[in-house]
Amino acid sequence: MKLSISQLKESNTFLNNLFENITSAIFLVDKNVRIQEFNDTFRVLFNKHDSEILNGLCGNVIGCFYAVEEGKECGNTSNCGKCCVRTAITKAFQDKENTLKQVMNRNFYIKDNSIEKHLQFTTKHMTYNDEDMVLVILDDITEIENRKLELERNNKIIQNYNDKIKKELSIARNVQQSLIPDKTPIYNGVKLTAVYKPLYEVGGDLYDFINIDENNVGIFISDISGHGIAAAMITTMVKAIIETSKDLLYTPDKLMENINKKILNVAENMYLTAFYGVYNNKTREFTYIRCSHPYPLIIRENKYIEIKESKGMMLGVFDRLEFESHKIKLRQGDKVLFYTDGLMETKNNCGREFNDRVFEIINSGLGRNINEIIDDINEELVLFKENQEYEDDICILGMQI
Asked: Dihedral of the CA atoms 314, 317, 322, 324 (nearest 10)?
């Protein structure tokens, strides 16, 4: 014979098994808030014997902190008027109003020890043995709540740390911004322009236009591997080295040798690529050195030329490197483009790099001045990357004779 679900639920055996094996602590109280029934889970939760539970007042049985500390019966303590469990039981009797999953946080005396617990409870009015009763279901969620509190504390620590980092980044950004020329300088016979986009609050790219004397202007651009505060610290060092190496500004090879010596092994797994050139407006000679940096482009008449003669190593990694300057004669109307690798390596949604597009822009605007060419590159870069984030700092410099 098959039993229907309704028949099974009416089975005393089924109900008893359910009552005793459910993981929630369950007990029934009468109108006097005395416990008339309870399950094993309730007994284990509060570490009580049957004789200590049956017909006992709820608060006294469960070891309510106030009942124990004040030595009073449940219902007569200073907290009973504010007790959420007692209030829920009263409502269930008076208004037949049930309470669902409310949380109580309180200390309970268990084995004579005061222990803080978080209990989630539900109350439901019912009739048992022809008497009005209230069923109370308790779940000990202390571990869950403690984990929540720990998580909140950890989140607060992380938030405070992040706020501190943001503040430090803001300071570092202000320092780094002071290293970048606040306006494009004007030199005899040379037009200069620049665009700089740091990836983070502070970046690893650095550039400078150096007024050496009335006939010579220096152009420096570098890119430190990595980003953030560490990269910014090294760019600050490089700027300071340049500022204190005025006697080396005429000789690019000597300047790079000095920079390499000063930043050697300063930061583990970080290195610097750089380009430095000195333009003489009388001779129109451009003396330069390239240390693993992207090749500059000379835009001349109806074509562009990559300056590939100099093949120096990256800085800050190897000692006793050989540095050699090169010279090239520039012409009236020549435009020279310098940049960091972030420009060419910017990707769009399809994963295509901006590299080819740069040359297309240059080819389509060979007759434009250097400001217009760099403005075009910058505008096209924003359109090209679509909704992709920049993956590196971007620096573009221009010089026109």
From this structure: 30
Q: Give 321-348 as a DSSP string.
A: -----EEEE--TT-EEEEE-HHHHH-B-
Q: How far apart are CA 268 and CA 158, in angstroms?
A: 26
pLDDT of 222 strictly over 70: yes
Tokens of 217: 């202007």
DSSP 203-251: -SEEEEEEE-SSSEEEEEEEEESS-HHHHHHHHHHHHHHHHT-GGGTT-
What single DSSP character describes residue 52? H
Query: 389 CB contacts (<8 Å, ≥6 apart)?
Result: none
Rounded distance, CA 46 to CA 53, Å?
A: 10
CA-nearest of 380, 346, 350, 349 to 362 is 380
* Mean pLDDT, rounded, of the chain: 87
**H-helix or E-strand spanning residue 124:** strand 113-128
Going 167 to 172 to 175 to 181, the CA torsion angle's sign is negative
CB 107 within 8 A of CB 114: yes
Question: pTM to 2 decimals?
Answer: 0.64
